[in-house]
Prior knowledge:
By secondary structure, this protein is mostly helical. Helices cover 67% and strands 0% of the residues.
Amino acid sequence: MSNTQPAAVASERTPLKARRVSFAWDRTPLHWLPGDPFSTHTMNVLHLLLPAGERWFIHVYRQVLPYIHDEQLRQDVIGFIGQESMHSQAHDDVLPHLKGLGLDPTPYTAQVDWLFEKMLGDRTLPPGRARKWWLMERVATIAAIEHYTAFLGDWILNADELERRGADPTMLDLLRWHGAEEVEHRSVAFDVFMHVDGSYRRRVRTWATAFSALAFLWQRGARFFMENDPSLLDGKASFGQFYRSGRRGTLPSTPAMLRSIPRYLSRAYHPSQEGSTAQAVAYLAQSPAAVAAEARTTEAG
């Protein structure tokens, strides 16, 4: 095991706080990216995966807090938990709106809940090495997943093509608020893993598991939405559509996603080396939902 910490960019760290945002969905259409149900539904998979996934992050991190002996990192984890809680709630709130538009996500979300609560949940293990091993496996898996949530956050902050194509402003603000916070806290999960374990072999192994699971769940979610969209006669999802959407700029590009793999697997990798905290903070300072949340907090105080 090696827990040598790769070089972090100190200027990219910022104090983390939960922004208690809210969104009104009554004016958001089913295809919130006009004329592009595939890109719409591929991004809508976030609403299916994230509520259960981020509740799972929080559950695991509450268990790992006793292993964290660095006070600054401990505060980062507490801020991370607060932000993830709001992300889960915000995406969960979209699901009734989708159901009201004739697209009931319940069959898929039930499978996702099972994955995080049963497959990746707590196991009946004896105290000691076995129980700690399972905790460290999950901590490493979260670090791998957070590499991709930060990648997506950086992408959505720079996805100008969505605005050019008339994306619904409320949905775009939800995705960019969430994406900005993912960039803002992108180093926390990796720093926790390096602090409590740091095994390179574990990092590689859990990356392979996380990447495979995310790819499987995402394509399955996109297919579910396309096949059950009441406005489509024969909705289908394919890798070819994903690749072409990436080239158009309405989804992340496949080459960019592939280039992210060796970066994470490099022994010199640190999340602070990717994305821009300044850009994330700048968006959060002008996000309609985040600005409104700050105003409510100020009034309440």
